[in-house]
Amino acid sequence: MCNSWESDEYANKLEGRKVILGGEGEAFQFTTRDGETTEKTLLEDLQSTQEETDTRVIMYALYGKEQGPFHKRSYDNFY
Predict the structure, then answer these.
(1) Residue 51 domain-assigned?
(2) Cβ neighbours of residue 42 under 8 Å, at least 6 residues apart?
(3) pTM of the complete model
């Protein structure tokens, strides 16, 4: 999924928002400044060796709360 969001063809969908994708112990933020190019940034604060999904979700939620309003979507767990 990171490969898709990293593509500049998604830049127009990123205007006015930040998309954060996490997995495999890393999280990346995708943004755009001009609606034409996508910027990908490693979020070192969200790097983790934690294997439990629930713990990572809490970590992501706390990070999101610090950043402002957010929506969480997860494709690897259902509850």
Answers:
(1) yes
(2) 26, 27, 28
(3) 0.75
pLDDT for position 78: 43
- Residue 40: partners with Cβ closer than 8 Å, 6 or more residues away: 2, 5, 6, 28, 29, 30
Range of the domain at 22: 2-67
Is residue 38 assigned to a domain?
A: yes
Q: Domains in the chain: how many in total?
A: 1
Q: pLDDT tens digits for 38-61?
A: 999 999 988 888 777 778 778 888
In angstroms, what CA-CA distances link 48 with 7, 11, 23? 25, 27, 9
pLDDT at 33: 95
